[in-house]
Amino acid sequence: MNKRLVALPFLALAVIAAKPAPVAVKPPVSMVAPAEVAADPANRWTLELSNGGKVVIQLRPDVAPQHVYRIQQLTAAGFYDGLLFHRVIPDFMAQGGDPMGTGEGGSKLPDVPHEFSDFPHVRGVASMARAESLDSANSQFFIMLAPRFVLDHKYSAFGRVIEGMAFVDGIAKGEPPAAPTKILRATIGGPLPAPPVVAAAAPAPAEATAASQPAAAPEGPPNTPQEAAPTTSEQAPPAAEQAPPAAEQTQPAPAPVEQAPAEPAADTPPQEAPTPQ
Questions:
Q1: What are residue 263's phi and psi, to 5 degrees?
Q2: Is the pLDDT of residue 52 over 80?
Q3: pTM of the predicted structure, to 2 decimals
Q4: On the chain, which terminus has fewer CB atoms closer than 10 Å, C or N?
Q5: Are 155 and 127 in contact (CB under 8 A)?
């Protein structure tokens, strides 16, 4: 018998054994909250606005657990009561959550590590503002008035409006608005849950830096050139620092510069560095 023919089955087995294992496909993020998330009343964030409206946001701890807990934590402490929407850009987003009302404030809690995900920045999505540092989100947030997919994987989306979007549209426009719309009262539907248990954050993706180019031009209504977007530039305290008691959460931070992601022109990357307010 030809020895080369006898060896063929063994060669075939070696080739099969050397074939790399298939890569697990990450399941897509659904815009519909999982049943257990929707069933928890603490995941319903309600904003009573000075324009007479009530806005309900479905929080998504399955997408951004640390950012959701920060919203719940500050809300339970009354932090957002009386704060205004200081930066509202038509056909883009409405930004609030700054106790100073200038885009330069935040809470005394440490900044939150980024939780970028596939949850898209479509109309009604709520996301955290930050500054140039990817891990500088603190208390400021923004609600999308129109889709801007160029913000995906650069800002941490944490929920979506499920009631009262017409009142979000009615938030006074301007940078700052002449007569800003205020959050009269912010509440969560249940008691403050336990802090989330999360694994160590993965390194920030290279494409999330200011020098990166978007994979595709943003969709939705026409862009306004060089619109500044929701970002926050608070510096995180040392890791050993513990969060202060709830009573201290209502005090403004010394003077961080917290803003929104830069709204780019069709072929311009987000301007993530702080811009004057």
A1: -85, 115
A2: yes
A3: 0.70
A4: N
A5: yes
